[in-house]
Structures are given as structure tokens and as C-alpha cells.
Amino acid sequence: MWKSCLAATLLLATLLVPLEGRACATCACGDPTLTSMGTEQPFAGRLRFANQVRAWSLTSGQNAEDAASLRELRMDLSVAYAPLPWLFLSATLPLQTRSLQQVSLSRETAWGPGDMEVGAKIFVFRDRDFSPDHLVGVLLGARLPTSPTVRDAQGLPLSLDAQLGTGSLDPLLGLSYSTFRGDWSFVASATGYLPTRGREGFRAGASLRTTLAAQLQPAPRWALRLAVDGRLEGPSDQRGVPDPVGSGLLAFVSPDVLFSPVTDVVVELGVRVPVLNLLHGHVRQSPILQASIAYDL
After folding, report:
1. Per residue in 112-130, pLDDT tens?
2. Does residue 246 form part of some domain?
3. Domain that holds residue 80
4. What is the pLDDT of residues 161-198, one digit of tens each?
5. How many domains does the chain have?
6. 95-100 contact pairs (CB < 8 A, 24+)
7. pLDDT tens digits along 191-246
8. Which of 105, 138, 236, 260 lies at 20 to 30 Å from 293 by C-alpha?
């Protein structure tokens, strides 16, 4: 009898020992909304990895005179971690391949790492701790000069447009708002960049990038998202000489499909279609094709 009592006591003591609790990202944040990288709800200890691939092209100048065509395939490797319920730390490293072709048919090609971007998103308001309906965040960060100077076979630097980054330190400041209404969610954000002078004395123009998005999620595994993305950029300069080409306003309509094949994995497929082009210098932007996958660990 005493052996049975001892065994029962040990079993009860084992069950009372606290263990580390683990839950999926949806359970931990209290909201089943599928989110792309950068729009997720925070909770302490959230760790997220993402891989986004984008393809686009851009042509500037007159076709028969000075046209130049730039094509890029880019893969962004991202990681985000929330050490606190109100703080997200993130880093994104782009791996790129670029091809620049002049009207003379001369071509420059570059591939390698681009300029890394790091940031801290501070959530300054949430209407409740668990499963909030309203979130306001402030983004602080910078784009770092991590891209190497790419050179041709003779050891000469490629032109600035063919380089994989500006090689400058560019501070950024942003503000975002998210709200969740049952099957619907909405996101509005604005981020400003203030570039410094970088490679060969080039300084990109200050820019403002905005997003206004609505998402409908009729089922736990998939959602439809429609956004209007805008980019307003000032003129650049090289060693103090202004260059207005490429500056101005560019706006996209961006439909996306998100689906979750398994728990904690979100796949996103979409396209950015330019609908308003007020850029200087006969600049024509192609649609931007993109695919991404995000995983919560």
C-alpha cells in the first residue's frame, strides 16, 4: 500500500512541475489573420523568417536616342524578433542580379548582396494586450552600405545604375496603423527615407513610401489582399549637380493572395501594377512580380 501511495505522490508532483508553454503564432497573438512580413501582430518571443522574390524592369530615356533598360531579380532574406510585446527588431538582406542595357546594346551585369536594412518597430498604442483590434507602430531604422562596388573584367566600376546599392547610410522613419474587424483587416503605413551621399558622390533623393491595404480572409487558410502603394521621391544629385530623372510620384495597385499550407507558414503571391506615373525623364516602370514565404518559429 505504501508503495502505491509513494508512486501516486511522485506522479502528482511531476504533473505539478511547470513546463515551458508553446503555441502557434495565431494562438500566441490571439488573431488568426494571415500576415505578410512586417504587418504581423507582436508578442514576446515571436521569431519570424521570410524570403521574398521580386522581378521588375525599368526603362528611361527616348527609345531611339538615349534609352536605357534596367532589369532586376531580387531575393530579400528577412528575420524579425520581438524581445518584448511592444518591440519588433528586423533585418533584411537583399541578394540581387541586375542587368543594364544601353541603346547602343552595351550591357552591364552585376550580382551579389545589396544594401541591408535594419529597423525597430515600436508599438506605441494597442487597445488591449491580447488580440488587439487597433495597433499603432513607429518604425526607426536605416539602410546600410553593405553592397560591394561591382567592377567589370578590366577592374573598372560599373555605372551607378548597374550597382546593387548606393553605398550610403540612409536613415528611415515610419508610422503604421493596423485594425482587425472579423474577416477584414486594414493597414496604413508611411515611411520616409533621407539618403546620405554614397558611391561616387551620388546622393539619392529623399523619398516617402506609403501603403493603404485591405484584406479579406473568408477562411482560416487563405486571404485576398488589395493595396495601393505609392512612392514620392525628390531629385538626386551627384557631387552637388541635381539630376531630376526618376524623381516624382509613382503609384501601384497591388493585388495579392495569401494562403497557409501548414500552421505558422504563410505564402504570398502578388503583382504591383503601376497605375500613376508622374516621374521625370520618360521613365517607364514595369509591373513588379513577387512571391514570398514567411515562417514563425
Report:
1. 999 999 999 999 999 888 8
2. yes
3. 24-296
4. 999 999 999 999 999 999 998 899 999 999 999 999 99
5. 1
6. 96/72, 96/164, 97/72, 97/73, 98/70, 98/71, 98/72, 98/162, 98/163, 98/164, 99/70, 99/71, 99/72, 99/162, 100/68, 100/69, 100/70, 100/158, 100/159, 100/161, 100/162
7. 999 999 999 999 999 999 999 999 999 999 999 999 999 999 999 998 889 989 89
8. 138
